[in-house]
Amino acid sequence: MAVQTTCDHDQIYQTLAAEILRLDHKPGDLLSEHYLCERFSLSRTPVRSVLQRLQENGLVQILPRKGSIVTRLNYDIINQLIYERVAVESMVLRDFILTCTPADAERVRFAFSRLQEVGQVYLTDPKRFAADVFLDIDLSMHEIWFRATGNLFLWERLSGPQSSYTRFCALDIIEGSNVQDVLRDHEEMLRLIDERDINGIEPLMRRHLYGGIRRLGGLVFTKYVDYFVPMENKPGA
Question: How many CA atoms lie within 13 A of 107 on its CB side?
C-alpha cells in the first residue's frame, strides 16, 4: 500500500471513514496507531486526533490498553432506521406522484437508465462492477422526489452516512447480490410515477428498503455474526 505524505487530517479522516463504511476494515478489526502512523507518515498525536473523530462518529471505539477497534453493527438500530425511512419516503413519494411535472418524471427515468447501465455490468462482467457508483445512482434517484417536494433536509438526514446502516448496505451488495432486486424495484417505482399509482407505494417501499434483511437472512446470525453487536433474540432462540 502506498504511503501518503499529506498532513491534511480531514482528508485522512475521510479516507478511513470511507474504508470503514465500505467494509475494507471489518467490524471488530484493530486500527493500530503504528500502522496508521506509517501509512500516513504522521506522528501519534495527529493520528490519535483522527481516531478520536472516528470514535465521535461511531466508526471506531478506543479501548484503553487495547487500541482502536472498528465498531460492530447494531441490528436493532438498522431495523429502526429502515422503519423510519419506509415511513418517511412512502409519504414523500406519494406527494411527488401527486404533484410531479413531466420534467420531474423524466429526471427519474434518466436516473433509472443510468442505474440500468451500471447494473448491466454486474450481470455481464461482475469483476468490473462498480458497487459504489451503483449505490450513488440509486440514491440520486430517490433524492429526486425529496428535492422536488421540498424535503431535501429530510433526505440529507436519512441518506447521510450511518455507522451501522451504511455498512449493512455495503454488506448486502457484497454478499446479497442485490443488483437484480434493486433494478426491479426501481423499475416498479418508475411505473408508479408514470401511472400515478399511490396505492402501491408503501408495499413497494417495504419490500425495497427491507430487501437487505431479506437477502442476507440467516447469514447475519451465522457467517457474519461477528460483525454485529451480540443480539439477544436470534431466530429460534
Answer: 15
Q: What is the pLDDT of residues 117-153, one digit of tens each?
A: 999 998 888 888 888 888 889 999 999 999 999 999 9
Task: Read off the pTM.
Answer: 0.86
d(CA 37, CA 224): 30
* Boundaries of domain holding 92: 75-227
Q: Is residue 79 domain-shared with residue 170, that is, in the same domain? A: yes
Cα distances (Å, whole numbers) of residue 65 to 34, 162, 180: 14, 27, 46
Structural domain total, the chain: 2
Outline where DSSP puts E strands in 40-176: 60-63, 67-70
Q: Which of 124, 138, 111 is nearest to 208 (CA)?
A: 138
Tell whether 235 is covered by a domain. no
Query: Is 50 inside any structural domain?
Result: yes
Q: Note the pLDDT tens digit of each residue in 16-53.
A: 999 999 899 999 999 999 999 999 998 989 999 999 99
